[in-house]
Design brief:
The protein is mainly α. Helices cover 47% and strands 8% of the residues. The protein has 12 helices and 7 strands. The protein has helices spanning 20-40, 108-128, 139-166, 168-180, 202-223, 229-267, 272-277, 283-298, 307-314, 358-383, 418-428, 432-441, and strands at residues 49-55, 64-70, 336-343, 346-353, 408-409, 415-416, 472-473. A 3-stranded antiparallel β-sheet has the order 2-1-7. It has a two-stranded antiparallel ribbon with strand order 3-4. Strand 5 (408-409) and strand 6 (415-416) form a beta hairpin. Helix 1 (20-40) runs parallel beside helix 4 and helix 3 (139-166) packs antiparallel against helix 4 (168-180). The structure holds fe (ii) ion (2 copies). One fe (ii) ion binds next to helix 3.
């Protein structure tokens, strides 16, 4: 069951060859996908041999195999976690019933929307990151970027498989549309706003993989609870890939911080001008990037009160983070939850029905998880003996969705006038000058074992390879 068939044109562990119609439909989508990869995948990279890991089985011990591959030849395919025998629905109105192997007609529209929204983020991030290879700080980082990119491509495959298999013609049309929308394009943008923002430099890339891929983790965790069993099994396997993306972000930021702290100690200064002249990214700028990516990402969880969120839960389509570990009735009717509201120009707590607050519940779980990494970054600063602490901004800071979109709030959580906001915004969010400075550091370093001046080398190579390993052969 867990073995992956690599002799098929489309590698899979779902016995694809037994369903000819589905196989043909996916084989028709495959060249369109490859065309999209050629047009919108990593810029100028088609002929590189990249040291990538490929899934060879979905067993936790044995799925990663490393080797040099040209990215267009990467074996994108369909990998589901093994089915759990007699799996039962464990939340919502259908609690205790058998999990669905097919989609109940009445939930088709909502499930389609959930799958398409998730699927759309996958190619979007590849598009957002497509120019970064031209300014990589090292071969190691270039390889990690490409690894993230091919896996996001595979996540698109994961969602398109569900669309093709369970949604017939509608699903095939959605599969095509997923290849047609473009990140940031005005007339046909990606569905969610954070996926239309540019990822213009590597500091943004590391922040994105730390914060925004973590949003991916939480969405996937919620879908891994789904009563629709194929969705649960697909997202479970996607989560194993997602872990690496967040590692790239966390360790990337950690290495930037480490290099900056080393320069601060060498030069015995915290003067931003002097540090920038020395070619490292000052800690206040890192804080502003953090503020930006954190706030844009928490918007992705949606409105703080949402009847859709309630419907998705009660109908069993989308659970909570770690639903199975929670000690309540898993129905949540009559429960309440605190969300923030604006009253007389102040932020106040407001109790709302728990079911309507499930976006907020997931956002709060996300916030807890993402703060962990910020604390680990602070350890790096502390170890260098520097009195500076990074901090995740207040939940109400720089929000564009839900109630909080109507107020301006400082990173500490103080409600501000428009004028106060305008005076201080450049201290809180990356300014044009910050972005131009960071951009000025982005030069391409590709000699094996060499790193840009603004980032420290990693503690260990990929798959324990030596420091000067040739991760990418440029041909
Ligand atoms: Fe993904
Ligand atoms: Fe990801």
């Amino acid at each position: 069951m867990t073995a992956i068939n690599y002799t098929d044109k489309i590698p899979n562990n779902v016995n694809l060859s037994e369903d000819r119609t589905l196989q043909r439909a996916l084989e028709q989508w495959q060249p369109n996908y490859l065309k999209w990869w050629g047009d919108m995948g990593p810029d100028h990279s088609q002929n590189f041999d990249v040291y990538l890991r490929t899934a060879v089985s979905v067993d936790p011990q044995g799925w990663a195999q490393f080797g040099h591959v040209k990215m267009p030849d990467y074996r994108w395919g369909i990998f589901l976690n093994p089915a759990e025998k007699d799996r039962k629905i464990h939340f919502g109105d259908h609690l205790g019933e058998d999990a669905w192997q097919d989609i109940p007609g009445e939930y088709r529209a909502n499930l389609r929307r959930i799958i398409v929204t998730q699927g759309d983020t996958e190619p979007a991030s590849v598009e957002q990151q497509r120019h970064l290879g031209l300014t990589c700080p090292s071969q190691y980082d270039l390889r990690n970027l490409f690894q993230v990119n091919v896996e996001e491509g595979r996540h698109l495959w994961a969602m398109v498989y569900l669309l093709h298999k369970y949604f017939g013609r509608d699903g095939r049309e959605e599969g095509e549309a997923l290849l047609q929308r473009r990140s940031g394009q005005e007339d046909n943008p990606r569905i969610l706003q954070a996926f239309n923002e540019e990822t213009p430099d590597w500091l943004s890339f590391f922040m994105f993989t730390y914060f925004t891929d973590r949003d991916g983790k939480f969405q996937l965790c919620a879908l891994a609870e789904s009563s629709f069993d194929p969705l649960a099994r697909t997202t479970k396997f996607m989560l194993t890939e997602e872990a690496h993306h967040m590692f790239v972000g966390e360790s990337g930021i950690s290495r930037v911080i480490s290099r900056t702290c080393a320069a601060m100690n060498e030069l015995k200064t915290d003067d931003v001008g002097k540090l920038r002249a020395a070619g490292v990214i000052d800690l206040p700028t890192i804080q502003r990037y953090l503020n930006f990516h954190f706030s844009v990402t928490i918007d992705l969880f949606g409105a703080d009160e949402s009847s859709n969120a309630a419907t998705f839960y009660t109908t069993g389509l989308k659970g909570r983070f770690e639903e199975g570990k929670r000690m309540d009735d898993h129905i949540l009717k009559g429960g309440t939850y605190k969300v923030l509201a604006v009253q007389g120009g102040q932020l106040v707590d407001k109790e709302v029905p728990m079911l309507n607050a499930l976006n907020e519940v997931l956002r709060d779980d996300y916030i807890k998880d993402s703060i962990g990494g910020v604390e680990r970054w602070n350890k790096v600063i502390e170890k260098a003996g520097i009195p500076f602490k990074l901090k995740a901004p207040h939940k109400a800071f720089h929000r564009n969705i839900g109630t909080l979109a109507s107020v301006k709030v400082s990173p500490e959580g103080r409600v501000l006038s428009e004028a106060e906001w305008a005076t201080h915004v450049d201290q809180w969010l990356p300014s044009e000058t910050d972005r131009a400075f960071v951009a000025s550091l982005m030069g391409r370093v590709v000699e094996p074992g060499k790193f840009s001046n603004w980032i420290a080398p990693p503690v260990m190579g990929v798959n324990r390879q030596p420091a000067d390993f040739e991760y990418v052969r440029f041909n």
